[in-house]
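Cross-posted from the bioinformatics board.
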Amino acid sequence: MDGRHQIFDRTIRHYLAPVGEYLDDATVTEVMINRSDEIFIERHGELTRTAARFADAESYEAAVNNILQFTGKSALDNQPLIDSRLPDGSRVHIARTPCARHGTVMTIRKFAKATLDMDWLVELGSLTEQARQYLTIAVRAEQNLLVAGGTSSGKTSLLNALSTYVPADQRIVVIEDSAELQLQKEHLISLESRLPDRYGRGAVGIRELFRSSLRLRPDRIIIGEVRGGEALDMIQAMTSGHGGSMGTLHADNPRDALSRLETMAMMSQVELPLHALRAQISSAIDVIVQMTRHVGGQRRVTQISEVEPLGDDGQYRLRDIFNIQEVDGEDSQNSMQLTWTSERSGFGMYLRPEERALVTELTGPIMESRPQ
Ligand SMILES: Nc1ncnc2c1ncn2[C@@H]1O[C@H](COP(=O)(O)OP(=O)(O)OP(=O)(O)O)[C@@H](O)[C@H]1O
Ligand SMILES: [Mg+2]
C-alpha cells in the first residue's frame, strides 16, 4: 500500500467502524447495508441480519462519501448507481436516490484474500476434474470463452482461475468497470473505466478502453463483465487475431448469453444486419461456461457448451459438452453432477501437438475429432 492508500485505509476504517468486525472476519463474504440501522451479512452463503448500526444516518452517509472519494468519485456527481472499491480491494456497490427509494444502499463484496484457484474450485465441487481439464485445454488452445451466470454466481472467480492457464509469455490486457480480477501474470496491463466528474468531464468508458487496448498489442483481451456496446468490439477482436479472449456476462443459460451479446452489440450504434451479426457472434465465441448459484450459497458450473457455426435457418447452434445430470450417489441417493454429454469437442481436432499432450486419458474421448 502506498501512502495515499494507507490514509484512506485508516479513514475508511474509521467511518466503517460499525461493521469493522465483519470486514475483519474472513468467514463473512458480503456486508449489505440497507439503511444506517439495517445491516445484513453473508456467511457461508447464508444471509443474516446483524445488530450492527451506524450512530445515525449522517455518519452512514459520511462513510459512503469517503469510500467514493477513495476511487475518485464524488457524492456530488449525481450518479445514483456507483461501483467503488475499498483500499483492500473489496468491491462496493452503492445505490442512492432517486433509484434507491428508501435512501442509500451499500453492499461490500469482500475481497477474498485467497483467490479461488481451479484446484480449489474442484475441491468445492464447483466443477469436476474432467471439466477442469477440458477448460484447461480450451484456454491453452486459445478458444474464445465466455463465463455466463446470474448475479454472484461465481463468474468472476472462475474467470480469474481460468486465466492462470494462459501461457506466461502471452500479453494480456484486462478491461474492467471496477478492478476486481486478480490475475497473477507478468505480461499484464490492467485498465479500469472512469465515471465523469461532477462537471461531466473525464469519463472513460469500457468501449474506449477497449479500442485503446487494441493498440497495446495484446495477445488476449479479458473483459471483466460485458454489458454494453463494447460487445461488438469484443466480438470483432475475437475474430481478428485475439483468440483466447475471455469475459463474463450476465445470463441464465448459454443460449441466453448469445442473445444478450447480440442485444448488447446492437447498442453499439453500428448498423449490421442481424444475420451478419449472428454469424460474427457464432464465429467469435467458442465456448460458454454456465455458472449457477444454488440455494445455500453453493456455486457450480452447470453447463459447458461450444458454439457452432450459424445454422442455415439463421439460428445459433450449441453443442453441449457438459451438463448437469442426475447420478446415483454412493449412499444410493440421487444427486446432480456435471457430466460429459458424450458429445465430442469441435476444437479437439485443431489442437496443436503440445496441446494434445495435455489431453489426459480422462478428457481424451472428448477431444478426439468426431467421426465424419
Ligand atoms: N465456486 C465457488 N464456490 C463458492 N463460493 C464462490 C465460488 N465462486 C465464487 N464464490 C464466492 O461468491 C461470491 C461471488 O463471486 P463472484 O464475484 O465471482 O461472482 P460474480 O458472478 O462475478 O458476481 P457479479 O454478478 O457481482 O459479477 C464471492 O464472495 C466469491 O468468493
Ligand atoms: Mg463478476
